[in-house]
């Protein structure tokens, strides 16, 4: 039967926000001004129904005649006859019409909703549906300009295409491919590496280990077995570098992971319930509840398809929480991004990479659409810019959850338990995601790894979460985990590690026919989870899932054979020893060597124009307001927020962390914060990393957290570990363990991603700046005893608390702006730091802290300005005589706090035991004035600072 | 006896727990009801005295916000829904729930299956989460009794909240006094078209309307997001009195206690 097409557009007198917003981006980003207007239309296609039925759908579902009109099997946006570009088109005819659709096989979440609504409307026989968007460009736009718009804004060829003709069918068909035998025993080293290239990403030693395993068995492996080993042994899944024996500057050193975990063990934190063993780390809350946290990176997928990549990044980290213990409810989401500056000239974007402004907008859209639809508040995050992120962004997403403490421990399947696949269907999505994300990015990455990305389906995950929490509460779950990288292979392979598991892939529901067995096994289709349930509990689990419109299918059973056995129909396509699969990987020995990075010592002269210096700081991308991003996230859903990301009188002053009361009616809660500084990590991996950890905890403590209740999560996003980068990484890990030893705050979860390297066609390498992101969370006894950053009243005292050497200006925003340089980065004083944390916390507990803000990028001046914005207040401060005023104002040492208290006596009393300095007082003037002794240095209007601070992101995101 | 409140859920509902809590705190006896349970007959709307359709992204808000659920309700649960309304029982739709009530036709004209107004994409072109000021109008609405003329603060969080309808319907709503909430200027407390005080470009700054009986209320802002003092973003700065969301739920519970 033919395809029916319905097109829907807004009535002529109704505005078209989607078109307007696109036009704004085209003008500001591409600089194309030949378009007067853009009209958009939705295009729906149906297969298997009559024109009359399509018309019923148009009227009852697709178009609302109050503001829309539709056509059936007719164009809706009139387009001028095909003359070559130029000339003026009639007012009601578009110069060019472009329809953009997902490629066949890319799951369009809308299609399922259309199928459901059609069934509810009594329309049977609908075989398939699709939805896409048409853009009509009005004005004098040329074909070349439209081609540029398509390439740079509208069409991401990884997942989308321009539709030229009406498709003949919407149904995807195909024959199941056979399982292939890989003749690995006969391969020489070259052939092994050829096999590995672009898909397995294993090195020669690892390929040889596989060859030798099968040589001993006397047979060749199936494609499924080789793929299973490659993904299980991928850097992404097994962290080879972090587990490697190290030779650092000629001396042996323990593996990085072992050192981090040992520090956690030594810290023996009394609140920790589960560290490093499960999908997230778990600590105690109150009332026999527990909270958990996980932070993930999703750099590689986001680099090639930022919208889908960010969505699946969010979806994945949410499932990590959902798959912790016997299951947790996700209560918060965080996002930390690094890009090249959005104004990067187009010719500086490396081949095969996307423009940072496009990446930024689309990544934010992906996090927005996944988190908002799931109903998870995204309420803590940050954005960092550096030119060297132009080859690959760093995309970090975190999630936090709550669960009964008795469900906090990871479950263990037993022999005879049923293996159940829950959630979305399996398609050819994300094949090789685990291995892909472990490889370097190159100019070929976009082409070779297109299948590694898909569009997330947040509602599928939301209903799955609803169903799984119900099953957990009824005590029906023995064990569960999420299907992330490596799909079923990873999920069931890990669950069956200690016993064994037998899976029948032909039982798994698929999106469309034609998948080879190994593809079903390795597919990384999103929104799926793996359960172990007893045969007695199975019917109830299936019933709960059905009640929530969630598909759940028994696909196998757990055994005691110690083997991973996979079948497709009658054929065994994989049989591997769990021992070899999980422990057969040769341990690497890796060498790290310090490379000197000479930095010229070049101090700036004191500013001639202080106003310009201050606005330059405030407008710097690493300092400026990120409010437009926070506004598009539903940071208020779940109604848990007791300290929002932005507050103060005008609602636009940033707070340092987020405080949540996730149990309605209870005053206890939790707190989330983080710290990172790629610029400092690049300048000095040890002190940059110490800074990140100190900043994370400072953000938490500034809001009133008790340092004794805080735990940490590490994310190392590092260039490919050559000798130099590995040395930097070793330094970063040393910083982390030193921090744990000094503060007693353990890391309880972590992740590394060591592929921040880009290799161009000519072999040139771009190392993306190394990032250590430290996240910090913990319980809060009483959320009403926490503190915000906005100044509360005039006439109170401002006091700086914490240890710093203002001459340590290396890596600062001020030095970057002035073109100065120094190797002297802020060196956090570890012995002092915990005492400062404790003093701030005790002051908050006493109720003496009116406002508190920690000092980070932009330094004291930026912190003071943000506090003034929130209170619609002014301030006067005095710099001690022997200090360089610009360094005093712009030094970025973490672990320092700007605190508002009632009067100088209170300040001295509260902070007697730690370094502190009474700076001045708040007032109700509209400016900040700075003196040194009796000399007035400058005064600046807070409004001028505010405008400078607000503008950069507003330009990217519009109003 | 406490009135029974049906918190209607489906795929993508995500403000259900907080709506439950708000009604619970106001004295209702709440129950989560999945639309599948109404379809299967496992539960019936008639068992409840109050119906709440919470916020979220029902079925992903595909096609239009709240559309798929509206089609489901008007196609398969029309009788239950019309009996419920005809029995004089209060109905509240918040955010996505408001979008659903409008797309079922229950608002503004109480004609199930006939749509006479809509909630379009925000003029800004994007989702918006922020606190807004709302002036409460004189209206027959039972949820806002005693609050007329006051200005309250609630949070909005939506991408499709621009109230839009034809001139005739708009006149009708205005002349019947069906407008319950308008986005307002924080200083003067007057309705405003200025972004972001009016976050979506709604006609006549309309943020919430009721039907002609005053028992069916729909609004884009989230009263359930302000039922504890510390829900307000600036609770540390001073006294805002009783959390502004509470009276709305209490009025509904009181109404049900007295009349049903």
Structural description of this entry:
The complex is a heterodimer of chains A (959) and B (260). Chain A is α+β, with helices and mostly antiparallel strands. Chain A contains 31 helices and 40 strands. In chain A, the strands form 8 sheets. In chain A, strands 17-19-15-20-18-21-22 form a 7-stranded mixed beta sheet. In chain A, strands 35-37-34-38-36-39-40 form a 7-stranded mixed beta sheet. Chain A has a 6-stranded antiparallel beta sheet with strand order 3-1-2-5-4-6. Chain B is α/β, with parallel strands linked by helices. Chain B has one domain (4-259): Class I glutamine amidotransferase (GATase) domain (Rossmann fold, 3-Layer(aba) Sandwich), CATH 3.40.50. Chain B contains 7 helices and 11 strands. A 9-stranded mixed beta sheet of chain B has the order 2-1-3-4-11-10-9-6-7, with helices on both faces. A two-stranded antiparallel sheet of chain B has the order 5-8. Chain B is globular and about 50 Å long.
CATH class of chain B: Alpha Beta
Quaternary state reads heterodimer
Number of helices of chain A: 31
Biggest sheet architecture of chain A: 7 strands, mixed
The end-to-end span of chain A amounts to: 47 Å
**How many strands appear in the DSSP assignment of chain B?**
11
Residue-averaged pLDDT of chain B:
97
**Structural class of the secondary structure composition of chain B?**
alpha/beta
Mean pLDDT of chain A: 93
Distance between the termini of chain B: 11 Å
Q: Which strand-content bin applies to the residues of chain B? A: 15-25%
SS-derived structural category of chain A: alpha+beta
The proportion of residues forming helix of chain A, as a percent range, comes to 25-40%
User: What is the CA-based Rg of chain B, rounded?
Assistant: 17 Å
Domains counted in the coordinates of chain B: how many? 1
Secondary structure tally: strands of chain A: 40
């Amino acid at each position: 039967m033919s395809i029916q097409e319905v097109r829907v557009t807004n009535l002529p007198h109704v505005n078209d926000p989607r078109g307007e917003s696109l036009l704004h981006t085209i003008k500001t980003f591409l600089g194309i001004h030949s378009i007067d207007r853009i009209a958009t239309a939705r295009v729906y296609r149906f297969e298997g129904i009559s024109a009359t039925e399509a018309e019923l759908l148009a009227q009852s579902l697709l178009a609302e005649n109050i503001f829309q009109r539709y056509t059936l099997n007719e164009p809706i946006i009139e387009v001028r006859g095909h003359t070559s570009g130029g000339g003026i088109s009639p007012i009601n005819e578009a110069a060019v019409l472009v329809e953009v659709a997902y490629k066949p096989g890319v799951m369009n979440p809308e299609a399922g909703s259309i199928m459901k609504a059609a069934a509810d409307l009594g329309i049977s026989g609908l075989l398939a549906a699709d939805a896409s968007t048409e853009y009509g460009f009005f004005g004098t736009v040329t074909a070349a300009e439209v081609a540029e718009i398509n390439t740079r804004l509208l069409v991401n060829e990884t997942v989308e295409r321009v539709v030229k003709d009406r498709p003949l069918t919407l149904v995807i068909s195909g024959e199941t491919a056979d399982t292939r035998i890989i003749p690995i025993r006969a391969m020489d080293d070259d052939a092994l590496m050829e096999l590995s290239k672009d898909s397995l990403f294993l090195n020669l030693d690892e390929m040889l280990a596989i060859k030798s395993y099968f040589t001993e068995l006397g047979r060749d492996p199936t494609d499924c077995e080789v793929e299973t080993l490659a993904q299980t042994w991928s850097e992404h899944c097994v962290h080879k570098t972090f587990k490697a024996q190290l030779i650092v500057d000629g001396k042996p050193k323990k593996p990085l992971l072992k050192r981090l975990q040992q520090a956690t063990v030594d810290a023996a934190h009394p609140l920790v319930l589960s560290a490093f063993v499960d999908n997230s780390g778990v600590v105690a809350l109150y009332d026999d509840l527990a909270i958990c946290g996980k932070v993930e990176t999703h750099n590689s997928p986001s680099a090639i398809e930022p919208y889908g990549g960010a969505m699946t990044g969010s979806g994945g980290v949410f499932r990590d929480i959902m798959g912790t213990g016997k299951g947790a409810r996700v209560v918060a989401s965080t996002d930390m991004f690094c890009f090249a500056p959005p104004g990067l000239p187009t010719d500086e974007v490396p081949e095969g990479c996307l423009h940072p402004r496009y990446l930024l907008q689309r990544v934010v859209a992906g996090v927005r659409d996944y988190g908002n639809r799931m109903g998870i508040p995204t309420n803590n995050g940050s954005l960092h810019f550096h030119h060297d992120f132009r080859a690959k962004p760093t995309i970090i997403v975190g999630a936090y959850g709550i669960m009964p403490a008795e469900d906090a421990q990871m479950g263990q399947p037993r022999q005879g338990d049923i293996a159940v696949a829950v959630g979305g269907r399996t398609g050819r999505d994300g094949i090789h995601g685990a291995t892909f994300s472990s490889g370097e990015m190159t100019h070929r990455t976009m082409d070779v790894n297109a299948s590694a990305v898909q569009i997330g389906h947040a509602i599928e995950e939301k209903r799955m979460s609803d169903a799984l929490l119900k099953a957990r509460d009824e005590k029906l779950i023995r064990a569960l985990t999420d299907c992330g990288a490596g799909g079923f292979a990873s999920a069931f392979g890990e669950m069956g590690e200690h016993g064994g598991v037998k899976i029948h892939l032909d039982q798994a529901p698929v999106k469309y026919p034609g998948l080879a067995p190994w593809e079903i096994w390795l597919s990384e289709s999103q929104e799926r989870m793996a359960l172990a349930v007893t045969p007695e509990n199975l019917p109830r689990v299936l019933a709960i899932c059905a009640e929530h419109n969630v598909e759940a299918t028994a696909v196998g059973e757990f055994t005691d054979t110690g083997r991973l056995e996979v079948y497709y129909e009658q054929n065994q396509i994989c049989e591997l020893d769990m021992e070899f699969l999980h422990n057969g990987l040769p341990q690497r020995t890796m060498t790290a060597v310090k490379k000197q990075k000479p930095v010229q010592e070049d101090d700036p002269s004191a500013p001639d124009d202080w106003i310009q210096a201050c606005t330059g700081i405030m407008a710097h991308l690493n300092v400026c307001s990120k409010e437009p991003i926070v506004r598009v996230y539903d940071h208020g859903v779940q109604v848990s927020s007791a300290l929002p990301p932005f507050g103060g009188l005008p609602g636009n002053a940033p707070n340092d962390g987020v405080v949540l009361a996730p149990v309605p009616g209870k005053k206890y809660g939790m707190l989330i914060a983080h710290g990172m500084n790629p610029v400092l990590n690049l300048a000095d991996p040890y002190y940059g990393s110490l800074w990140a950890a100190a900043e994370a905890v400072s953000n938490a403590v500034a809001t009133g957290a008790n340092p004794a209740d805080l735990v940490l999560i590490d994310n190392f996003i590092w260039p490919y570990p050559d000798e130099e980068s590995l040395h930097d990484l070793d330094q970063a890990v040393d910083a982390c363990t030193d921090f744990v030893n000094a503060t007693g705050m353990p890391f309880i979860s972590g992740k590394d991603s060591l592929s921040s390297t880009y290799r161009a066609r000519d072999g040139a390498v771009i190392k993306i700046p190394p990032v250590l992101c430290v996240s910090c969370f913990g319980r809060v006894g009483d959320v009403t005893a926490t503190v915000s950053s906005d100044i509360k009243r005039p006439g109170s005292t401002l006091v700086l608390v914490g240890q710093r050497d203002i001459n340590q200006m290396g890596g600062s925003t001020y030095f970057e702006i002035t073109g100065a340089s120094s190797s002297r980065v802020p060196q956090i004083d570890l012995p002092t730091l915990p005492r400062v944390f404790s003093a701030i916390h005790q002051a908050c507990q006493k109720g003496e802290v009116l406002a508190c803000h920690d000092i980070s990028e932009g330094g004291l001046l930026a912190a003071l300005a943000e506090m003034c914005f929130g209170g619609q207040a002014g301030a006067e401060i005095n710099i001690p005589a022997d200090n360089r005023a610009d360094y005093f104002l712009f030094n970025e040492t973490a672990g320092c706090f700007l605190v508002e208290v009632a009067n100088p006596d209170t300040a001295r009393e509260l902070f007697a035991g730690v370094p502190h300095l009474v700076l001045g007082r708040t007032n109700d003037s509209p400016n900040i004035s700075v003196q040194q002794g009796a000399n007035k240095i400058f005064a600046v209007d807070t409004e001028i600072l505010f405008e400078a601070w607000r503008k950069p992101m507003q330009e990217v995101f519009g109003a | 006896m406490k009135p029974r409140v049906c918190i209607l859920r489906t795929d993508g509902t995500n403000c259900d727990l907080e709506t439950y809590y708000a009604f619970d705190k106001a004295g209702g006896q709440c129950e989560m009801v999945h639309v599948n349970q109404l379809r299967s007959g496992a539960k019936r709307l008639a068992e409840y005295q109050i119906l709440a359709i919470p916020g979220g992204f029902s079925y992903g808000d595909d096609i239009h916000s709240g559309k798929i659920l509206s089609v489901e309700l008007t196609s398969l649960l029309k009788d239950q829904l019309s009996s419920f309304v005809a029995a004089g029982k209060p109905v509240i739709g918040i955010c996505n729930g408001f979008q659903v009530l409008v797309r079922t036709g229950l608002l503004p004209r109480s004609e199930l299956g006939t749509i006479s107004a809509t909630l379009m994409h925000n003029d800004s072109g994007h989702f918006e989460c922020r606190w807004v000021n709302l002036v409460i109008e004189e209206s027959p609405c039972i949820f806002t009794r005693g609050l007329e003329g006051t200005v309250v603060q609630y949070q909005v969080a939506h991408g499709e909240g621009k109230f839009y309808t034809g001139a005739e319907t708009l006149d009708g709503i205005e002349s019947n006094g069906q407008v319950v909430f308008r986005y307002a200027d924080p200083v003067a407390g007057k309705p405003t078209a200025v972004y972001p005080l009016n976050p979506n470009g709604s006609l006549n700054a309309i943020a919430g309307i009721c039907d002609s009986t005053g028992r069916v209320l729909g609004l884009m802002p989230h009263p359930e997001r302000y039922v504890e003092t510390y829900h307000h973003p600036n609770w540390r700065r001073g006294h805002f009195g009783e959390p502004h969301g509470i009276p709305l739920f209490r009025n509904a519970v009181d109404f049900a206690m007295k009349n049903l």
